[in-house]
Amino acid sequence: MRFWLLTSTTYGSWLPGDPRGSVTSVRDYRAGDPNTRRRVEHDRHGDPYEPYMPGLYRSAGAALKHKPVAFSLQHAKNLAGRFCETAEHRGWRLLAFSIMRDHVHWVCGGADSSPSDVLRDFKAYGSRGLNAELNGGVAKRWWTEGGSKRLLPNERAVFGAVNYVTCRQYMPRVTWRLEEE
């Protein structure tokens, strides 16, 4: 089974052009890119962040449909249950997750599922739970689009990712780890 470290940020918490840098799907040529006619999208692990772009940052902030999402403890507890239910329903092996104010990390394996599908389903089922129980049934956008999907190539990498997710997060709302029997 393949395992991934998955990460997603909450809606509005890390905008294109952000002062911290951003991954903005900018398609341009950089030194070291292949010499092709196609433009290269710089949004992969190891690519440098785009620098602070004040105009883009202001524009992205003005385009938000509602305030940026910050998960409370109540949100995190709701999500934790949904993540475990989703993994069980899909037959995935969820090893760990950590829910912070503005992002979530998961370490999960899915034999026949792509990491994009796993991330999409965690976010979709989490959103349904939040909307139903904490938002009066009103749909709200809780997440940014996409997210980081890092393949963990071996057992050591999986162990390191579980440790990172469960022990090295700043002020997690909820942290969960599979307890082996």
Automatic annotation (TrEMBL):
Family matches, as InterPro entries: Transposase_17 (IPR002686), Transposase_17_sf (IPR036515)
Record-annotated Transposase IS200-like domain positions: 70-140
Pfam families: Y1_Tnp
BP GO terms, sorted: DNA transposition
Composition bias, Basic and acidic residues: 27-45
Location of the region described as Disordered in the Swiss-Prot/TrEMBL record: 25-45
MF (Gene Ontology): DNA binding; transposase activity
Protein's name according to its UniProt entry: Transposase IS200 like protein
